[in-house]
Each structure stands twice: as C-alpha cells, then as structure tokens.
From TrEMBL:
Gene of this entry: yggX
Keyword tRNA processing: no
Domain of life where this protein originates: Bacteria
One of the GO BP terms on file: cellular response to oxidative stress
Role according to the record: Could be a mediator in iron transactions between iron acquisition and iron-requiring processes, such as synthesis and/or repair of Fe-S clusters in biosynthetic enzymes. Necessary to maintain high levels of aconitase under oxidative stress.
Gene3D superfamilies per record: Fe(II) trafficking protein YggX
Molecular function in Gene Ontology: iron ion binding
Assembly and interaction partners: Monomer.
Stated name of the protein: Probable Fe(2+)-trafficking protein
Family in the record: Belongs to the Fe(2+)-trafficking protein family.
Keyword presence, Ubl conjugation: no
Entry GO terms, CC: cytosol
Length: 90
C-alpha cells in the first residue's frame, strides 16, 4: 500500500517512503516530506560524496558532514558539489 505525500524536494505529489529510513526527528521529517524518487536521488549523491570525500560512516564528524549535505540537498534546494563531476546534460 503506497502513500502519496507532497514532496518538499520535488515540489509535487509523489510516492512516499514505506517506513522511516533515518533516525530521529530528521528521519520523521524525511518520512513526511521526502518522496521515494527524491530519496533515490539523494542516495546517488550520498554514494558519490562518500566515495569522493572518502567519508567513513564510523566517523561521527563524517556523518555530520553527510547529514548537513542531506539537509541542504533535500530541504534547501542546494545541489551537492562533487569535485570533477559534471552532471549529464538535461
């Protein structure tokens, strides 16, 4: 049973997550406001960030950096800047 939400990132109605994917209040906000397609976009960016910046999920500082990038990307309309990466032309 899928649910439809108004996605803050996409600025339109879209399919919501099946369950909360991230802990805490931020996770609850993501569950309420971020659609599956938007989360998939973030997952791609997150993987690129982790690889490029050699982030470790065991390191609390790295997790903080990633969380801030996620907030910027999902809620504040800021794209993730990745060195040497040029997005494909639309």
């Amino acid at each position: 049973m899928s649910r439809t939400i108004f996605c803050t990132y996409l600025q339109r109605e879209a399919e919501g997550q099946d369950f909360q994917l991230y802990p805490g209040e931020l996770g609850a906000r993501i569950f309420r406001e971020i659609s599956k397609p938007a989360w998939q976009e973030w997952m791609t960016k997150q993987t690129m960030l982790i690889n490029e910046k050699k982030l470790s999920m065991m390191n609390p500082e790295d997790r903080k950096v990633l969380e801030q990038e996620m907030i910027n990307f999902l809620f504040e309309g800021k794209d993730v800047h990745i060195e040497g990466y040029t997005p494909p032309a639309q």
